[in-house]
Amino acid sequence: MENKIEQIKKEAIECINNAQNSKMLEEVKNKYLSRNSEINNLKKGLKDLPNEQKPVIGALLNSVSNELNNLFEEKNNYFYKKELDERLLKEKIDVTLDGEYIPQGHVHPLTQTVNEIVEIFNHLGFSLINPQYSPEVEVEKYNFDMLNFPKEHPAKDMQDTFYCEGAENVILRSQTSNSQVRQMLNSRPPIKVISPGRVYRNESVSARKNNLFHQIEGLYVDKNVTMAQLKGVLNEFIRLYFGSSRPTRYRSSFFPFTEPSVEIDVQCIMCQGKGCSVCSKTGWLEILGAGMVDPNVLKGVDIDPDVYSGFAFGMGVERLTMLKYAVDDIRLFFNNDERFLKQF
Ligand code: PHE
Prior knowledge:
This protein is α+β, with helices and mostly antiparallel strands and 344 residues long. The chain folds into 2 domains: 2-91; 109-341, BirA Bifunctional Protein, domain 2, CATH 3.30.930. 40% of the residues lie in helices and 19% in strands. The model has no long low-confidence stretch (mean pLDDT 92). The structure holds phenylalanine. Residues 175, 177, 217, 255, 258, 289-291, 312-314 line the site of phenylalanine (PHE).
């Protein structure tokens, strides 16, 4: 028995010495020291040996496996260092090479304006509308009829509004005012919401007009809401958005769903009011329409106009952005030219 053990030991040492790399060494280790190795099997057989042999053979087996283990460890450490050195030499990194430039994107200028305006109105007590009440694909009923547009109103013409082929009455909304109707149908006063979104008009595209643009609608309905409050809110908005120095003017106007109605102009930043092509030589640019919610609209959504009143406004996001940063062509917002977008 002792001879056999010595023989195994001799063989194992020879194999360890012959191993050329850590992988070969690992194989040798599996052969001589794993659970199924010969030495381990002999250990398992100890219990069948005569009593006086057990301690002798047991001690011998232990000392042999300890010795082999140490030899493995030693050689393994040697290989680890050697192979690591070789790898590091091969994988040398040149830290002086230029890195790769990864450009970082940012929020689109129109989205920046929307976020800024929504924040101003939050500050004034308006909450963001549930987007469910502000769909871009709409039926005529909410975009026109319930907003008190007469049946033959020219805005309903295909010349002005995009209709859906094959789905009668389905349109791309021409204004965010559709969200007024949906909000009022689905909630009771007090209502104080702000509703940003895309709108579409079938118009010829120019420096001032695109057939897709963005609006932000506001609606406030409660008892005793007045025109003075409308002016107060919008003046405060203009002060916060532009800074107090920007000249503004109110003009009386008409919308089917507000009475009385106004439009607000801001002095053209491009020509400082002198008149240029952007403002059609008037020196002013219209930024929003507003007014007191027409009693007919309130009746249509089952809100009693004798008890409640409200105001609404709708502003153009592109116009507001152009005026703040002196952008002279609305199409720049949609061309995705990085030279333009990077300036914001
Ligand atoms: N929806 C109107 C437009 O697109 C603007 C508006 C909104 C006017 C709310 C009055 C009240 O021109």
